[in-house]
UniProtKB/TrEMBL annotation:
Gene coding for it: Pomt1
Annotated keywords: Endoplasmic reticulum, Glycosyltransferase, Membrane, Repeat, Transferase, Transmembrane, Transmembrane helix
Cross-referenced Pfam families: MIR, PMT, PMT_4TMC
SUPFAM superfamilies linked: MIR domain
The organism's place on the tree of life at top rank: Eukaryota
Family that this chain belongs to: Belongs to the glycosyltransferase 39 family.
Molecular function GO terms recorded: dolichyl-phosphate-mannose-protein mannosyltransferase activity
Protein name: Protein O-mannosyl-transferase 1
UniProt EC number: 2.4.1.109
Catalysed conversion reaction: a di-trans,poly-cis-dolichyl beta-D-mannosyl phosphate + L-seryl-[protein] = 3-O-(alpha-D-mannosyl)-L-seryl-[protein] + a di-trans,poly-cis-dolichyl phosphate + H(+); a di-trans,poly-cis-dolichyl beta-D-mannosyl phosphate + L-threonyl-[protein] = 3-O-(alpha-D-mannosyl)-L-threonyl-[protein] + a di-trans,poly-cis-dolichyl phosphate + H(+)
Regions crossing the membrane: 68-88, 100-120, 154-174, 186-203, 208-226, 246-267, 576-598, 614-635, 641-660, 672-692
MIR domain residues: 296-359, 370-427
Length: 726
């Protein structure tokens, strides 16, 4: 029974020593001296703010992309015990002792290190030689720009890691297709492809480019499968459903989960929630929730309300009035109604309160039981402090003469009667009998007499006589539901005081009633996703911004950090030899491909069919990866930096050994030519290593260089190498 114990238990395993060695070299290359410099480096000043907000559970919106990358950086901070207390206000600021610098930079560095063995594996899965795969990995290892970008609290190295992981996983899956379809390993690599694509998109939307490339590749491969007569219709359907599940459904679900975790972590109100809707703000702890908690849900006749413009651009603002009137004549000579001004005011104020009045009754209090206002009802809006009625008439607005002036009516006993009836239209209603609800309902106010719609006029500020507040107009052409025409009730109470003095006291007091207004996750996700996609900071010229054309020839650099006293500094600069070789490889690949295509059209086959398929598949992945990650930047209207090119140049670097092996195998026909070509490759690779060593001081920031040595590194006049005046 225990006979198996007579023999030793032996476990055998195949270990790729080259792969292990590359991984170790990558870790040393990226992790060495990771805490240096112990100061804020370039965009760490940007991402560090979000890390601190994660540590304090404070909500924020970053228009640069989804939250997954930020959460990974925050994970490093959490593992290091960071409490979030650091003022991220200046590049070069020394980190305080409570900031775990090594932990903050660890995950980007690990991602950068793992890109080295991934490059090796991708070339192997593309069926290139071990020597070519080793060359690809070493080129990634010695690429100065990738080293610099991976050693700080930045997202590009994490993005590139997930991009390469997605490509490698898909190639593994594809190579298992013929012999091991629907096996455990087949499913593993297919699912990992979808997960890696979702993670890449979750780090930065640039990951979407590679995701689209892999979806197109998978679609092309499936198209070829349809022509395979050995596969039944049922088998093809199963293949289609498996790919749809792994490459579309699961990535979408995982992408949603990033936002779910993000919103679950950030439950406290902060400086960024003001750009969100009132309903979103009220779902956060503190801030607006402290004011709105316990408000009545249904707006009734007699309700006291504040109305927030849904657009929120250029800033959030509330419908407002004050005792001042429009000037009799404007600066351009046009006349006004001289009625009481109505504006959109970007701060909370007692003059933001309005009373919803039934036109058929005089009372300004809520009856018992309350009579709710529904979609389509006619109301009057009475300014709480001045008791004047919201009004518009056929008088040109002060800054928008094509629109009507909006005012609070003053009876001057002239031939301009009050026109103060407004129809309530609930934009997001489910039925035509919906009740107007606090925070949740988005409403338009349509003027009964003129059909003009109450609108914030898009950020136009009134002159000094209007205290620089934002203009409100009656928009005559009211096609569609532009957000500037939509308002929601933010603060709300049921009015109880009929007397004006008592009512003014009431308007200053908080509400006490108890009703919850929680948003569903999907509602919060939809709103946050829309804000990320549409909220754009004003692009300003940056000292180190560049155009996409500058990247190919590396005519630009970025100074990441400068030591306050010595000449030590860190720059984002690529390995000149590698970048020039990558450009040459791309050009050679394009020219050879066109040549082969022309010759094949004439039925002349210069290389075997297997070699042709290998050449095209490698070009589709490496060349296609470069194109999809580079060309879209020519269509983008945003401030661009050299680091945006790093995903593209990574694919272009992988193309170098592809071209070199092809030249060696198919164009160097004699032994002498092969020997000469090998010698040239060795000499070329020595130059890559030489450039890496030359620029290492400005890649790692040490050792400090003298002014003379720094001048020697300015290989191009367009490079901004910082030299201190002696």
């Amino acid at each position: 029974m225990l006979g198996f114990l007579k023999e030793p238990v032996v476990v055998t395993a195949k270990i790729n020593v080259s792969l292990v060695a590359l991984t170790v070299m990558g870790l040393i290359n990226r992790l060495w001296g990771l805490c240096y410099p112990r100061a804020v480096v370039f965009d760490e000043v940007y991402y560090g703010q979000f890390v601190s907000l994660y540590m304090k559970r404070i909500f924020f919106v970053d228009d640069s992309g989804p939250p997954f990358g930020h959460m990974l950086l925050a994970l490093g901070a959490y593992l290091g015990g960071f409490d979030g207390n650091f003022l991220w206000n200046r590049i070069g600021a020394e980190y305080s002792m409570n900031v775990p610098v090594w932990s903050l930079r660890l995950l980007p560095a690990l991602a950068g290190a793992l890109c080295v063995p991934l490059a090796y594996q991708i070339l192997v899965e593309l069926h290139f030689s071990h020597c070519a795969a080793l060359g690809a990995a070493l080129l990634i290892l010695l690429e100065n720009s990738l080293i610099t970008q991976s050693r700080f609290m930045l997202l590009e190295s994490i993005l590139i890691f997930f991009i390469l992981l997605a490509v490698f996983s898909y190639l593994k899956f594809y190579n298992l297709q013929k012999h091991s379809a629907f096996s455990g390993s087949w499913w593993f690599w297919l699912l990992l492809t979808g997960v890696a694509c979702s993670c890449a998109v979750g780090v930065k939307y640039m990951g979407l480019f590679t995701y689209m490339l892999l979806l197109a590749t998978a679609g092309l491969h499936f198209w070829h499968m349809i022509g395979d007569q050995t596969l039944s219709n049922v088998s093809l359907l199963c293949h289609f459903l498996a790919r749809g599940l792994a490459l579309i459904i699961i990535p979408m679900g995982l992408y949603l989960s990033f936002f779910y975790v993000h919103l679950a972590l950030l439950y406290r109100s902060g400086p960024h929630d003001q750009i969100m809707t009132s309903a979103f703000q009220a779902s956060l702890e503190g801030g607006l929730a402290r004011i709105t908690q316990g408000q009545p849900l249904e707006v009734a006749y007699g309700s006291q309300i504040t109305l927030r413009n849904v657009l929120g651009k250029p800033m959030q603002c509330w419908l407002h009035s004050h005792t001042n009137t429009y000037p009799i004549r404007y600066e351009n000579g046009r006349g006004s109604s001289h009625q009481q001004q109505v504006t959109c005011y970007p701060f909370k104020d007692v003059n933001n309160w309005w009373i919803v009045k039934d036109p058929g009754m005089q009372q300004l209090v809520v009856s018992n039981p309350p009579r709710p206002v529904r979609h389509g009802h006619i109301v009057q809006l009475v300014h709480g402090i001045t008791t004047r009625y919201l009004n518009t008439h056929d008088v040109a607005a002060p800054l928008s003469p094509h629109s009507q002036e909006v005012s609070c009516y003053i009876d001057y006993n002239i031939s301009m009667p009050a026109q103060n009836l407004w129809r309530v239209e609930i934009v997001n209603r489910e039925s035509d009998t919906d009740v107007w609800k606090t925070i949740l309902s988005e409403v338009r106010f349509v003027h009964v007499n003129t059909s003009a719609v109450l609108k914030a006029s898009g950020g136009a500020s009134l002159p000094e006589w209007g205290y620089r507040q934002l203009e409100v107009v009656g928009e005559k052409l009211s096609k569609g539901y532009h957000q500037s025409m939509v308002w929601n009730v933010e603060e709300h109470r049921y009015g109880k005081s009929q007397e004006q003095k008592e009512r003014e006291v009431e308007l200053h007091s908080p509400t006490q009633m108890d009703i919850s207004k929680n948003l569903s996750f999907m509602a919060k996700f939809t709103e946050l996703q829309w804000k990320i996609l549409t909220l754009k900071n004003e692009d300003t010229e940056h000292k180190y911004s560049s155009s996409a054309l500058d990247w190919i020839t590396m005519d630009t650099n970025i100074a990441y950090w400068l030591h306050p006293t010595s000449g030590a500094q860190i720059h984002l600069l690529g390995n000149v030899a590698t970048w020039a070789s990558a450009n040459a490889a791309a050009l050679v690949y394009l020219c050879l491909s066109l040549w082969y295509l022309l010759r094949r059209r004439r039925k002349i086959y210069d290389i075997p069919e297997d070699a042709w398929k290998l050449w095209m598949s490698a070009g589709g992945i490496c060349g296609g990866g470069w194109a999809v990650n580079y060309l879209p930047f020519f269509l983008m209207e945003k401030t661009l930096f050299l680091y945006h090119y790093l995903p593209a140049v990574t694919f272009q670097i992988l193309l170098i050994p592809v071209v070199l092996q092809h030249l060696s195998d198919h164009l160097c026909r004699s032994v002498l030519l092969k020997s000469m070509f090998s010698a040239l490759v060795v000499a070329w690779f020595s130059s890559v290593y030489f450039v890496y060593c030359t620029f290492s001081p400005v890649t790692y920031g040490q050792p400090a260089l003298s002014p003379t040595e720094l001048k020697a590194l300015r290989w191009k006049d367009t490079w901004n190498i910082l030299i201190r005046k002696q």
